Amino acid sequence: MPVQPADGSGDAVIALAPDQVMAGAAVYSRSILAAYDVWVLGFVCSAVWHCPRRYMLKHYDRNVGRRHLDLGPGTGFFLDRCTFPADRPQVVLADLNDEVLRKTAGRLARYRPAMYRRDVLQPLELGAARFDSVGMNFLLHCMPGDIKQKAVVFDNVLPYVVKGGRIFGATVLTHGVRHGRLAPKALESLNADGVMSNKDDSLADLDAALGARFERYQLRVRGSVAMFEVSVV
Predict the structure, then answer these.
(1) pTM
(2) In 3-state terms, what secondary structure has residue 176?
(3) Where are the beta strands (DSSP E) in the chain?
(4) Beta-strand pair 90-95/114-117
């Protein structure tokens, strides 16, 4: 059944099958996660996407709050290094992949993070929890569907963000950004292998999805990567 989008545009959004969602999450095996910081965040971000990881770390530093929810936390690299505005932040992790949750929770053991196995395209069911910030770094380009379908994640997190809170993240786009020499072939290969699902993702669609939902947001582009931040009013 088509699902009506939250922006009220009237364009139907096709619901994604569970196996499509699981396929994207399953890519991140223990061996992939072991090499992720060096290979993806170290080499690929700089040499292929032309967005060194230091810019995403600054993105975290600028937006992370005392009570933080991270969707698709990867290895926890940025959560491990960012500067929280409190000595003892409350950190909650949500992902479909148990390996991701174990890896990140172990790395952030000093914060005693809570973990939830969740499909972020579905209602998150986090009860009475409320957050000052929600991060989704390199999440959207791994999710199936186009930007209109993926953008439901913003609707799913919004009930849990306090007024004045922040929703932020970064994603590799295929259209509307300036790619370096290596990016087109990398995008083709990663989409063919199922590591990414962003062949239709564009800056214009991301801007439209944010603009339909939020009064205050910013988009910054560096290389192939768009970094977004929303202030919830």
Answers:
(1) 0.88
(2) coil
(3) 2-3, 13-14, 67-71, 90-95, 114-117, 131-137, 161-172, 216-222, 225-231
(4) parallel
